[in-house]
Amino acid sequence: MFAPEDSRQRRSKINVDRIRIKEVAANSSSVDYPAYLQLYEIPPGNDITLAEFDEIAVERLRTLKALENCKDGYKLNDDDFKKVFREQIRKFGSKLIVNCQEKKTETERADAWRRDTIGHFILRLAFCRTVENVKWLVNQELDLFKLRFMNESEEVVLRALRNTQFELEKVSDSEREHLVNKLASGSGMSLDVVRITSFWKVGFTEALDLIRKRQVYLQEGMAYVPYEDLVVIICSHLRTQMTQAMARAYKNLGMLEEENRLLPRLKSLSNNAYDGKQYTGNENENLVTRKMLDKLASTSFPLCMKHIHTSLRSNHHLKYGGRRQYGLFLKAIGLSLDEAMMLMREEFTKKMPSDKFDKEYAYNIRYMYGKEGRRVAQNAFSCSAIILRNPPSTVDCHGCPYRHTEPQILAQRLQKEGLTRDQVEKIVNLSSQHSYDKACSRFFEYTHKMEEGALGQLITHPNFYFEESQKVLTGKRATTADFVESHVASAESQSSLMSRKSSCPSREPTDIDGDMELDD
Amino acid sequence: MSTAYESVRLDHDLPTYYKSFFPFKSFCKWLSYGQVPSEYFARREFAFILADDVHLRYKSFNDVLSFEKELCKVNPHKLDLGAVYNHFPRDHRKHSDMQAVERELVFDIDLTDYDAVRTCCTEATVCPKCWKFVVLAVKILDKVLREDFGFKARMWVFSGRRGVHCWVGDAKARKLNNLGRSAVAEYLNLFIGNKVEVLKGRTKMTWVPNLVQTAYSSALEGGFFESMAYEQGWLNDGRAEIIFSLYKELSADLRTELIEKFNALPTPQLRWKMLKMYFEEDERKRARQEGLNLPLEPQNRDKYFLKYFVLWHVYPRLDVNVSTGTNHLLKSPFCIHPKTGCVAVPLSADDVAQFDVTKCPRLDRLVAELPSINSEIGEKEEGDQKENGQRKVLAYRHSSLAKYVENFEKYVELAIFGSVAIVYTVGRSINHVDLGTVSWVEDVLDALGVDVPQAGRLRPLASVLRLSSSIVSLDSN
């Protein structure tokens, strides 16, 4: 099991699997694609044109992104949520079915299921390469699944689950009656409710989330799960499956001889996991000088960058992590190499001789601008990179304040920024629930005197924060932007980019004030 | 009888202990889980801890012999067991993907965590009175592990000084990942900080989880909690303020009322009775029948005061970190505690109540037993006309350690049986079935639609296949 397979073996295994999957697909008579609410156990095996490949992948990606954005403003499965979400995906013409009650013809339906399966598996491939991407995709896919699950009647759900390999055993009426008291105190229901609820037996390892909360009746290693909690079980099952499958896919991706055809496509898809734009600073060069930084920091920097900036000003030094995170950010907002060098020199030499600075730090700054070493200008860190890579130690000042700072200290810092106690509490709460992006978006809205949710999008890149802030301050963006409209705007900009992407993948410099765009 | 142990003798006595008393055979049978030769054993991490807390980690051994040789050569002060890894632990530097894959599910209860409620002793000292905390903790946990999780192989090991460890050896438990372990540990751990979580749900819709109910009735069973409360003086004069401010949800009115009543009563016994009259339904019923004057029934969250009171004092205080990490090291059974000289002896859950910490087998006493054991065996062997003079003396069989080794062997059987494939032949086909315990065999046969054979036909082929009791063969013809 642990023996290393050589690549030839693995490649031949992939081929065998491919043939087998095709056979399965060919043999299954009427239902080529598993219908609604499947657990994505069997990958699709038919041939598909590249154009369709692109179309289906982009459709699903945008559906998931719409879902993510809506979740920021509303609670999953609220009436408002459903309305806004449906509105959004209708706008870009998604053919995916989100709710079974939608009126569609048989053929439309069959097509939708087919797209559902294919889209899911393409995205798995596209997002399997980095931990942050895997996590993002799994979370969104699970939410989509959850949404569908919660909108279905019990009967439909169970019929769908019967087609999967997930084993569930229904608790018989007599057994339920026998255990009625225990089931009630196990799940926190009244006796009457227990009597009209269906219960399902699963091995306790499948129900860990419920066990952790002591919210399910356990007997002899079996968890007795009421129907309303079933979604938790199935989601955690799907999560495990997806994560494992994507880890395997990542291993095998290199073996596919698809360098020219599929791999670039997949790569461009997963670039869109956050807001999509890679910030290099090429487009805004020389927009900002070091003299402007103090002012900009107080108005338009996200909390993480503000913190590093203050720390630079007061300690006259930055450690490696801080230099990289802050330096690349500054480069991307348009601070030129010369300015950056002077900024750092002015500060650092207050504590060290200038030749020490030249020897130990100058190279590093030039490197970031692509003037040394491998001579590639680097992109500014996105939020997920900041959160997932290289956590700060106690002496560092980089990292994400919502992720890496103790709640009390975070609260103090927020208060210093002039937030009210209510606002501080809200943000600290979000950060303790691991919703760092939401916490940052709220911070943006509070400091820009906007309504909650008016930003309409989550902050997923410090430079996006900066750009949006500049737009607000220069009056190019309304502070009371209607939620739906702002989404449509971003969806449209994405659609233009997607179409451009498939035709010409060349990089075009973009204007700082322009709509969100994505570079390949 | 109980003179303190002189730890200076440790280095002198340890070689004798490892050579003559350490039960290598059962020990290695356990860690092999029915495989011979066992890769499972070879991928297990052992840690030797020498004088001055020098840790030799990531040791691993191919077989029993090399383990025995090394242990007797190094004579470590302590022996810890780690996880089973995906590679041989001794090669841990060679592999970048080295990770713990399996390990028994373990729990650690330490009496120092009870210092808030323990009035008889503090810190490292332990007397029979405080041992009762351990007794109750084991009783509750053992019941829950058995009934809720269905774990069959559970061993409780005295840690040598002031606590016990639990080793759950079922295959299902060993295969749990960190997430699973932490879920089980969180399920079992009712303490959040210094508070006990007896209630679930929001203000109006509260309910008491089954676990709380089970723990509460186990504690009260046979008046166990009551006698502890008297011994530890929890209901003594002047305790009213402390007791009734424990439970933060208690309404102010009832608190005042209870404090008043408590102080008016002369003895702890009467106070306990008073509490039961307030909060115990059965007690109220009985009193009603006898026509006694009853206090008003407590409302809402007040109802749960007594549960909180009892569980806050005696519910197991687990060291959750020990349980959650697959790769966490834990002191091995039969290891000597370097400070007390006590052997970490395996106990069954029922033994724990009878166990006397002061009479635990101790290194110096065991070594002192050796001459008489040797002469006894010698005599016997002479009587039997000894077959070969080279036979190793298994002194533990005749020493005061013997009954603990038996406990251990029982556990090993259970743990192994939980993990073996039952090879079952029907005509030409062979079905491998992973089974929990022996008693499940019949269920499986039933499920396979085969008539359950008479007891005599279900026989272990251990002697034939030399695979211990790990394979049971069923001949349907």
Automatic annotation (TrEMBL), chain A:
Residues that coordinate or bind [4Fe-4S] cluster: C304, C383, C400, C440
Q: Which note does the record give on the cofactor?
A: Binds 1 [4Fe-4S] cluster.
Q: Name one GO cellular component term.
A: alpha DNA polymerase:primase complex
**Region (Disordered), start-end ranges:** 489-520
The biased composition feature labelled Acidic residues covers 511-520
- Domain DNA primase large subunit C-terminal: start-end pairs: 294-466
The family note in this entry says:
Belongs to the eukaryotic-type primase large subunit family.
Explain the purpose of this protein.
DNA primase is the polymerase that synthesizes small RNA primers for the Okazaki fragments made during discontinuous DNA replication.
What is the official name of this protein in its record? DNA primase large subunit
TrEMBL record, chain B:
What Pfam families does the database record attribute to this sequence? DNA_primase_S (PF01896)
* Keyword line: DNA replication, DNA-directed RNA polymerase, Metal-binding, Nucleotidyltransferase, Primosome, Transcription, Transferase, Zinc
**Family of this protein:** Belongs to the eukaryotic-type primase small subunit family.
Q: EC annotation? A: 2.7.7.-
Identify the enzyme class.
transferase
Gene Ontology CC terms: alpha DNA polymerase:primase complex
Gene3D superfamilies linked: DNA primase, PRIM domain
Organism placement in taxonomy: Eukaryota, Metazoa, Ecdysozoa, Nematoda, Chromadorea
- GO biological process annotations for this chain's record? DNA replication, synthesis of primer
Q: Per its UniProt entry, which superkingdom is the organism in?
A: Eukaryota
Residue spans crossing the bilayer:
none
- Protein name per UniProt: DNA primase
Tell whether Zinc is among the UniProt keywords. yes
Spell out the molecular function terms from Gene Ontology. Answer: DNA-directed RNA polymerase activity; metal ion binding
State the NCBIfam families in the record.
primase_sml
